Amino acid sequence: MASIAGNARAVRDRADAAARRSGRNPAEVRLVAVTKAVPDGRILEAIDAGLRVFGENYVQEATRKIAAVARERPDLASGIAWHFIGTLQRNKARHAVGAFEVIHSVDSIALAREIDKRAQAIGRTQRILLEVNVGGEATKTGFTPEAALAEAPAIDALARLRLLGLMAVPPAAEDPEKSRQRFRALRELRDEIRRRGAAGEAFRDLSMGMTHDFEVAIEEGATWIRVGTAIFGERPSV
């Protein structure tokens, strides 16, 4: 297998170059290394290579990996952040709150309220992003842009949530340029929510861009990119 350290450096170099092309500070763009279906040993290799933020799609799989990393790298575990990036069912919210530093994929006000309730129960504040269905795809969850604009104030007002921004997964396209308008639309929606004062000062982030299109996402304003294959290689079918 290719070196994870080398792959991660290559991704970071490409991300930095994309930021500079668009007149941005590369430090504004942070990397979530997506570890869905990645074996524990490869995650430990990524930690040894300096990666510190990992994204998971399933609560049960993530919980096991978090425990494994804490066991194998106890000296580093407190400096590692886990982000939830998959579809979160309301009945799994109690397991996600507290386990993940950021939940990127809050796709309804009902889920936001459930997360707020669970965060209240354990006395913590949970950082979240709202998932927006930018392509209007019937097979995907997420707020419509209009609903995100309308619901943001009520979600931002929940006492135990800190609303950081928006997240999206555009319709699949081989050509990254075909996603550019979707990424731009998400940035414009964030800016409109901020312009209207519909969310607080923390509302700045855009979680968008994966292995095949993260450079375009950065050029359009991404602050978090979610990259798995370019770092870990092709994962087995799950």
List the main descriptive attributes of the protein structure presented here:
238 residues, alpha/beta, TIM Barrel, eight-stranded parallel beta sheet, 9 helices, 8 strands, 16% strand
Set down the secondary structure blueprint:
Elements: H1 4-21, E1 30-34, H2 40-48, E2 53-56, H3 59-72, E3 81-84, H4 93-96, E4 102-106, H5 109-122, E5 126-131, H6 145-156, E6 161-167, H7 180-195, E7 205-207, H8 214-219, E8 224-227, H9 229-232
Parallel strand pairs: 1-2, 1-8, 2-3, 3-4, 4-5, 5-6, 6-7
Description:
It is a single chain. This protein has 238 residues and is an alpha/beta fold. It has a single domain (4-232), classed as TIM Barrel (Alpha-Beta Barrel), CATH 3.20.20.10. The chain is built from 9 helices and 8 strands. It has helices spanning 4-21, 40-48, 59-72, 93-96, 109-122, 145-156, 180-195, 214-219, 229-232, and strands at residues 30-34, 53-56, 81-84, 102-106, 126-131, 161-167, 205-207, 224-227. The protein has an 8-stranded parallel sheet with strand order 7-6-5-4-3-2-1-8. Strand 4 (102-106), helix 5 (109-122) and strand 5 form a beta-alpha-beta unit.
CATH homology group: Alanine racemase
CATH class: Alpha Beta
- How many strand units? 8
- Fraction of residues in H or I helices: 40-55%
- The CATH architecture term is Alpha-Beta Barrel
Main sheet strand line-up: 7-6-5-4-3-2-1-8
CATH fold type: TIM Barrel
How can the largest sheet be summarized?
Answer: 8 strands, parallel
Number of domain units: 1
Number of helices: 9
The ordered H/E elements are HEHEHEHEHEHEHEHEH
Percent range for β-strand residues: 15-25%
Helix/strand structural class: alpha/beta
Overall 3D form: globular
Give the end-to-end Cα distance, rounded to a whole number of Å: 20 Å
Question: What is the radius of gyration computed over CA atoms, rounded to a whole number of angstroms?
Answer: 17 Å
Mean pLDDT: 95
Low-confidence stretches: none
